[in-house]
Amino acid sequence: MPSGPLRALLLAAATALACKTAPSPTPVATPAATCPPCECNCANGGGGGGAAESSARIAELLDSATKKMGTRDGKGCLADLEEVARLDPKAAERSATIQGQCLMLAGRCEDGKARTRAALAPMMSQWGPEQLDRTIDAYVGMYCEGTMSDRDALLRALMHLQQGAFMTRKDVAFCQEAADTVERLRGKVQPRDEDDHQIIDLDRGVVASVPACFQRAGDCDRAWNRYQRLATRANPESYGKLAPAQLDQVLRSGFESLVPKCKAP
Length: 265
Prior knowledge:
With 265 residues, the chain is mainly α.
């Protein structure tokens, strides 16, 4: 057994030899990155602002479309809604009723009716088809412009008479056009069904609205002349049996109770 110093010398030599002859470890190559560099899409202002800005723009457009509908600017309203559809088709779908009204105002009455019916049908299913028909008729009377069917033109004229008689003052020409349209189309437009009371009761319905429209427009003579014809036509059984003097007295009494501002002095 070698002595202590010799043993230490041999151990050092063996260690040096082992370090010299042992193979070096093979380096492991690190694969190159394969993911493309990240890009920032700043088209909408970067970060999360794009969605907020889009929502604000949609709200602005819907508000503008509603205001234009209120001023009866159908084409301007539709332009706003087309931009909404480009930004968010779901938001456009939720505004389908406004779109239907604006189509009517823009002179596309049939398209407007179809769009409005499709929008309202799911909400009104529990009320039945008759109520949906009456609701569409009301929209037609309020919003349809331009070329339309005889029925739609008659509904529009009836709505105009209601507006001029009971809602807001119109001029004589407005009342005259509506009253003349009713005269032209009565008998030509047939009731849709037994629930179509606007057409079934047409003659009775205009006895009040026509003279009241003229009275509010400031023409009592025209109101009186129209009332005589309309009242006797709507109630031939009652008025047909009266002598001329009595008929005039009864008609005058009925007229003055209907439009007291046209009461004779």
